[in-house]
Design goal:
This protein is an alpha/beta fold. The protein has one domain: Alpha-Beta Barrel (TIM Barrel). Helices cover 37% and strands 10% of the residues. α2 links the parallel β2 and β3. The longest helix has 18 residues. It is globular and about 45 Å long.
Length: 105
């Protein structure tokens, strides 16, 4: 049996500009799981609250990609950005703990 999740970076964009609003739209459409590849513009607690109230599971996030406006789409390969990568990886882990593992600290 196939299971599908709603990628909220792409789905329900006409109905709502906010990722938070798209969470409830995904649930209303019957999705049990959601993906928010780049959730970093919204605090983890706000996203977790919206996810919990909608009853969907967070299934995917990506690590912080860098500055998209500067053309970044991943910074782990740049030797001169190792420290930034480490810091942002910690940020990604924070989101992971709150959204997927549901650990509050």
């Amino acid at each position: 049996m196939l299971k599908f999740s709603a990628n909220l970076d792409f789905m329900f964009t006409r109905e709502a500009s906010s990722i938070v609003d798209r969470i409830s739209l995904a649930a209303a459409a019957g999705f049990k799981g959601i993906e928010i590849p780049f959730p970093y513009e919204i605090t983890p607690s706000v996203l977790a609250s919206a996810r919990e109230s909608s009853g969907v599971e967070q299934l995917l996030i990506n690590s912080w990609p860098g500055d998209a406006s500067a053309g970044d789409f991943g910074i782990g390969i740049f030797p001169n950005r190792c420290e930034e990568f480490r810091e942002k990886l910690e940020l990604s882990i924070t989101y992971l703990k709150v959204l997927i593992l549901r650990l509050l600290f």
